[in-house]
Amino acid sequence: MDMTQEIISEKELEVKLYEFKHTLLNYDYSDVDNVIFFNIESFNWYLKRFKNNPFEKQYNELEEIFKVIMPYIPSTIPDEAIDTITHILEAQYDDKELIKKNILFNIKMDFIEMVKDLSSQKNWDDLVAQCQEIRKAKVALHQEQRVFI
Q1: Which domain holds residue 132?
Q2: Residue 86, number of CB atoms within 10 A of its CB
């Protein structure tokens, strides 16, 4: 995590996580209740033709929330590993930002699937607690680094 980025409060993280869950699982698609997509091509055609459609709105809302919660979501790839992998691959492929973007995209997709697969409130509470623990670790690291500065 970029340590220049401000660490959000526990409450703000909790609110943003609930906002994410609601946007992902309970999004209002009433604008397209009467629309049926026969295949992926018809869906893609719809997305290109009708700007500001509900799918695009949902995606944009999720991306805005991700900007805030990304440093706190659980991942099998820690920040340091992302930086190391990016550095190694950069020597071979020469596009650090694209590599990092692809890795972060996969982390986002994993988190989306994680939220979609939750089967109970307890599972959700456990996920929120895990995000809070990641946040606390970042706070501790940030405080530790300030001591050395």
Answers
A1: 10-148
A2: 19
pLDDT tens for 80-107 read 666 677 667 666 666 667 777 888 888 9
26-35's contacts with Cβ under 8 Å and 24+ in sequence apart are 27/54, 27/58, 28/54, 29/54
- C-alpha distance from residue 142 to each of 1, 24, 29, 73, 137 (Å): 10, 31, 41, 17, 9
Is residue 116 within 8 A of residue 25, CB to CB? The reply is yes
In a domain, 91, yes or no: yes
- In a domain, residue 22? The reply is yes
Model pLDDT, residue 3: 45
Percent of the chain whose pLDDT exceeds 70: 83
> How far apart are the C-alpha atoms of 28 and 80, rounded to whole Å?
38
